[in-house]
Amino acid sequence: MAHDQIETIRKQIDQLNLQILDLLNQRASLVQELGKEKEKLGSNRFDPERERQMLNQLVEHNKGPFNDTTVRHLFKQIFQVSLDLQNDEKKKVLLVSRKKKAEDTVVTVKGVEFGNGSPLLIAGPCSVESYEQVKAVAENHVKRGLRVLRGGAYKPRTSPYDFQGLGEEGLQILKRIGDEFNLVTISEIVTPGDLELATQYIDVIQIGARNMQNFELLKAVGRLNHPVLLKRGLSATIEEFIYAAEYILAEGNTQVMLCERGIRTYEKATRNTLDISAVPLLKQETHLPVFVDVTHSTGRRDLLLPTAKAGIAVGSDGVMVEVHPDPDVALSDAKQQLNIPDFNTFLDELIASGLYKGEAVTTRR
Amino acid sequence: MAHDQIETIRKQIDQLNLQILDLLNQRASLVQELGKEKEKLGSNRFDPERERQMLNQLVEHNKGPFNDTTVRHLFKQIFQVSLDLQNDEKKKVLLVSRKKKAEDTVVTVKGVEFGNGSPLLIAGPCSVESYEQVKAVAENHVKRGLRVLRGGAYKPRTSPYDFQGLGEEGLQILKRIGDEFNLVTISEIVTPGDLELATQYIDVIQIGARNMQNFELLKAVGRLNHPVLLKRGLSATIEEFIYAAEYILAEGNTQVMLCERGIRTYEKATRNTLDISAVPLLKQETHLPVFVDVTHSTGRRDLLLPTAKAGIAVGSDGVMVEVHPDPDVALSDAKQQLNIPDFNTFLDELIASGLYKGEAVTTRR
Amino acid sequence: MAHDQIETIRKQIDQLNLQILDLLNQRASLVQELGKEKEKLGSNRFDPERERQMLNQLVEHNKGPFNDTTVRHLFKQIFQVSLDLQNDEKKKVLLVSRKKKAEDTVVTVKGVEFGNGSPLLIAGPCSVESYEQVKAVAENHVKRGLRVLRGGAYKPRTSPYDFQGLGEEGLQILKRIGDEFNLVTISEIVTPGDLELATQYIDVIQIGARNMQNFELLKAVGRLNHPVLLKRGLSATIEEFIYAAEYILAEGNTQVMLCERGIRTYEKATRNTLDISAVPLLKQETHLPVFVDVTHSTGRRDLLLPTAKAGIAVGSDGVMVEVHPDPDVALSDAKQQLNIPDFNTFLDELIASGLYKGEAVTTRR
Amino acid sequence: MAHDQIETIRKQIDQLNLQILDLLNQRASLVQELGKEKEKLGSNRFDPERERQMLNQLVEHNKGPFNDTTVRHLFKQIFQVSLDLQNDEKKKVLLVSRKKKAEDTVVTVKGVEFGNGSPLLIAGPCSVESYEQVKAVAENHVKRGLRVLRGGAYKPRTSPYDFQGLGEEGLQILKRIGDEFNLVTISEIVTPGDLELATQYIDVIQIGARNMQNFELLKAVGRLNHPVLLKRGLSATIEEFIYAAEYILAEGNTQVMLCERGIRTYEKATRNTLDISAVPLLKQETHLPVFVDVTHSTGRRDLLLPTAKAGIAVGSDGVMVEVHPDPDVALSDAKQQLNIPDFNTFLDELIASGLYKGEAVTTRR
Q1: Are residues A113 and A300 in contact, defined by beta-carbon separation less than 8 angstroms?
Q2: pLDDT band at D48 (very low <50, low <70, confident <90, very high)
Q3: Contacting residues of B for C307, CB less than 8 Å apart
Q4: Residues of chain D with a CB closer than 8 angstroms to some CB in chain B
């Protein structure tokens, strides 16, 4: 008896489902039409006043069994998906997204292709300290077929009394090394005023973790025609990271690369916690090259090799790692940089794992 | 022109809103009816098979502009609020909630009222180490008009080689002290097998942070008729904390008190981060007494007084703090316990702040 | 027998302790002397090369039972405290610290004293949207005896497509309101290039959470002679926060105030987690005024009053809260701003709690 | 002139360094001797009273330039390393550590070797729901050469009103399936009272994340002679995880395996944050097999494959993943389980990556 009763009610519910669906789609069409009319008037803004009126009217006419809170909640959802329908078109306009551009962005600098499917190694000292220091690293790069050299000229440091980098002198060293050894150079810039200068000296401008939401810097770098490597903020969500990249693309600069570098968590065995699943997420959501900085994420030499393997296996476009001719006397990050022999061992084992093929083929032309 | 057009469309949308509302409420009534029929059959479980059928049918009939994903999403929402309508009655059956019981729960033990609106002080050593040690604290309690004494007999310790508490001997000491000084005693129990024993020795059973989701322990303590103090887990959400308390009430025990004790975050200046806003949230959502453990949340003697003030000002039913006759030689938590003179100063300043009135009036009868 | 033996060994250890102490202090004196000699040469930098030589020499001469790692560790500690001895003098030079300046810094603007021991209320809309909007709030301020008005002209937003504030127009509105109603105005500035302008329009420059480690902005604001309110970063440690303030003072600007605004944690019941114990920590470590932003830390209207009470009880110099004439239609933070009647109730209850005295006496002159 | 002076002082410091080293090693020898004497007396406990006396004596005799705090700090360090010298022997006794046992622990069950260097796949439904459901998965296991089947019989759920598992009936189903298909079965046990029973039905007992610090359960499982898989707690540090395993080994059970399953962070794009660097850390610190649960760490089907690749590349002994014949109607974790065809694709791609070799060779005998 009850079974039959249940079947009857279920059929009635099925009927209602379809009626509701029909009305919802009618409503959606009207909202789309409305959007177009409003656009003609140039007033395409979300209108909370109108939303409040609709909610009030609905609550006024609500006879239950849904209570008013539920009605408000449910219609907020309906309003939201209708707005999303408009925004979908906008989101197709989210310039970093796969929806906007399905194929991978490849950034080419001095013949090196970032994001072409073959993982790269970005290596170099934490800070540029002298011409000799960077040259020692560069010579090894050339020996090992590497093409990308990082080095910090402006160092954002927690304390104002710590070594702040060589500044322009550091950029000049990088320029000279880049030219002499035909290497792509990457260095962090921390304020809009230095960007002009930087484009003359270095090949890729890095925006560091602390500046990921320095929106004025993002906008300024977005107005350049110069490759950018954007690092994830210390506790930025994936969504915030994507929007930070969007700030750059929205200004016109499409040569943007992303870098996961660990997030701040309670765990203190590592300097930060490498969020490895951020890589496939960013690759799915955006068309930009994605790198993994194993040095800053772990802060430990003994974890660089396994995390580099993981970083490539998970689908990144390459790994960033710090190497210094004499880490013990480095002016910053002494404990986490590899010396050159250890770096070469790291490289050998990474190649031996089969995950990293080396760069000779891709880049020697 | 466009303005008129906009007005026309808006009116059509208003119309559709009301029609949709009407159908949604019709649907909700049917779902309620269905729930009753299913209850007759004893099969009140959520039926995902049926849900899938409905979604398939809807997608099959969807003609847009909403895409199928949006239709699925929107109807999942509609199904959800309809289910919630059933669960609302269940949630009114969420025993810890204000919806179930508007007035504050007051737990009375040996004449002490926990949660009666007048904040209490729960104090005592981290671990019970000897009769003399606890007696020294108890004598001061009596002098200062305090009535509630905490002390650990079973100590959950990170390492198996650390001092694990005196066990039953510790409970016996608490029993003796509680009787001799007419104090309410609180101590942590860590496994179902010890509960029976514990009810004979101590007045309030504490469930510690590490066991907040030890559901078998919660159920077992729920079957007792004995007051319980439940501490928030190291990284439990407020929602998980509330549900943990519900596990106890669901088994019949209504004498439950909650204790915020700091959560695990990246910040290392304090042992944990005191989540002060958890207190008003828990007071809003539940009818249970809520305490603040300032010792474990901060782990620093120099922060006990200001956080105790904050804990009372924010609306808690009292503060828990550790005091030890000789903290420097304590077998656990040496760095964060107050000695007796410092505890008395703490008490004086708390009273001087006007936030804490002392317990003489409430408890001296 | 063993007991006697133990006593004998202990006496030998005591003897060695004192000898070690003596040598350590001798060593420390030499290090101090060395520091002075090096200063004469202008080379006061930490010398890792020398440190490595010493460690090598020690390890070479180590005969155990300590292993080489322990010897390195222990002497690194000894080197560290010796360096700290030099830095202590530097740290006495840490300009924000109580060691440098024992008495509280009081920042006085238009007769309002920030940090004079009597808590203030900083209130106003999230964004400046129009003259009328801000005026509505300002009129209520005057009625209620409040003197400090906040309002955002430049809004750092996650998405580049969200409302970014009125910019200079917003600052102009604040200037006009500040003059007409004799209110102190606070507004966030996000890039060095806008600072010059800002000093002409607003009384206090706010550095927002996202820019707490935008060191170039900190340095630029440090070169002004204008009050600054520095907010804690989303996941900044207390130590990083203190150093960020130091960046400002190191450039000469001493009119700096701090603001705790919640940190990012796993808990999602609130927008952020108010780190209430940060307030007494900052008051202990620094001499600067410290405020609590209850709006951004909780993100919930229902928690503003209890957390404001906690914020004052814990020892802050005041509370920041958002109020908007019509929050439902606000262009940002719609869900967390109070409307004016609710704000007045908030104010009434805060005064009724006895924790907040109102500002009439302090500021009406 | 100053240069010579510097050299002279440096030589004096070098001299002092060696003298201090000599005295420290003398002291360490005495402490070792003392430890042995105390052991004879059976009182090997750390003696804080004695430590305090020594510190008082030192401070009393301190003439600077080190201040008393520094002296206390430095000698606490010296005491600590001396104690560590005793504990080192203890730590060599930390049973899980590589120091105790250099070679990898291999746990062999029904011919399957966990931890033998060849990564395994542990797969199965979140909850055991019926014989048919588990059989469908098991048949596919056999087809694909897999040997290890997971399935939950006791489900720890946030809410007491959620499906709590079939209990003993679930274990019986696993027993039947394990026998019929020659599979190794793994299931979680949540309370000491059920362990006896469990050993009769299942091959590997899982201790879940919520019970990682349920020390009584750990001790009880430590007294069994039965393989155990211990999952990392929701916000456990690596150190706490290692100590939790030590609780089991300390009771005699050496067949322990570890499983990283993501930690709780602020990031909400994934259910938890997979802490990939925990794997090499655990492999370095312990000799136990280490697995990666990609289902619970990510909570997203679209991330299972890349994180499984990362998990193997980083050096784990295998990957745990959930598969269900009909995930949409699963009684728990509906959104994150793979259906069988998708699971087979997952398997194919994992094999195609070269990181996972399949289990046919290792296990078919």
Answers
A1: no
A2: low
A3: 276-277, 280, 314
A4: 48-49, 52, 90, 156-161, 190-193, 210-211, 213-217, 234-235, 239-240, 243, 246-247, 250, 264, 328-330, 334
pLDDT in tens, B68-89: 878 888 888 888 788 777 665 5
DSSP letter string, B25-40: HHHHHHHHHHHHHHHH
3-state class percentages of chain C: helix first, strand second, coil last, to nearest 5: 50, 15, 35
Residue A128 has pLDDT above 90, yes or no: yes
A120, β-bridge pairs: A318
Q: Which residue of C has its CA nearest to D264?
A: C266
D256-289 per-position pLDDT tens digit: 999 999 999 999 999 999 999 999 999 999 999 9
Backbone angles phi, psi at B257, to 5 degrees: -125, 150
* Sign of the torsion angle spanned by Cα atoms A211, A212, A215, A217: positive
Say which of A238, A302, A313 has its CB closest to residue D309.
Answer: A313
- Cβ distance of D277 and A237 shorter than 8 Å: no
Kindly give the interhelix angle for A48-61 and B2-40, rounded to the nearest 10 degrees: 40
Amino acid present at C234: L
DSSP-assigned beta bridge partners for residue C247: none
Residue A187 backbone dihedrals phi, psi, to 5 degrees: -150, 150
Distance (Å, rounded) from C-alpha A365 to C-alpha B7? 65
Question: What is the DSSP annotation of C296-327?
Answer: HHH--GGGHHHHHHHHHHTT-SEEEEEB-S-G
Strands (E) across chain B are located at: 107-109, 112-114, 120-124, 148-150, 184-188, 204-207, 228-231, 256-260, 290-293, 318-322
pLDDT of residue B363: 41
List pLDDT tens digits, range D198-209.
999 999 999 999
Q: Do D17 and C85 touch (CB under 8 A)?
A: no
Q: How far is CA A281 from CA A239, B342, C338, D337, in A?
A: 10, 53, 37, 18
DSSP result, C58-113: HHHH--SSS-HHHHHHHHHHHHHHHHHHHHHHHHHT-TTBTTT--SPP-EEETTEE
Q: At what angle do helices A304-313 and D304-313 cross, to 10 degrees?
A: 150
Residue of B nearest to D217 (CA): B191
C298: chain B residues, CB-CB within 8 Å: 277
Question: Is D3–C41 a contact, with Cβ atoms under 8 angstroms apart?
Answer: yes
CB-CB neighbors (< 8 A) of C268 in chain D: 268
Selecting from B90, B159, B191 the residue whose C-beta is nearest the C-beta of D161 gives B90
Contact D89, C49 (CB under 8 A): no
* The two three-digit tokens of residue C63, written as one number: 């005969």
Tell me the C-alpha distance between B246 and D161, whole Å.
9
- The neighbouring-strand residues paired with B31 are none
Distance of alpha carbon D126 from alpha carbon D327, whole angstroms: 10
CA A61-A64-A69 angle, 5° bins:
80
Q: CB of C198 within 8 A of CB of A202?
A: no
C191/A192 Cβ within 8 A:
yes
- Taking each helix axis from N to C end, the angle separating B68-92 and B48-61, rounded to the nearest 10 degrees, works out to 150
The pTM (predicted TM-score) of the whole model is 0.84
Centroid of chain to Cα C314? 16
User: Among residues B288, B159, B158, which one has the least CA distance to residue B210?
Assistant: B158
Biggest CA-to-CA distance, chain D: 90
Q: What is the interface pTM, i.e. ipTM, of the complex?
A: 0.81
Q: Where are the alpha helices (DSSP H) in D93-194?
A: 131-143, 168-181
* Residue matched to tokens 């009584």: D216
Contacts of D64 in chain C (CB under 8 A): 25, 28
Number of residue pairs across B and C with CB atoms under 8 Å? 110
Whether C30 and D17 lie within 8 Å, measured CB to CB: no
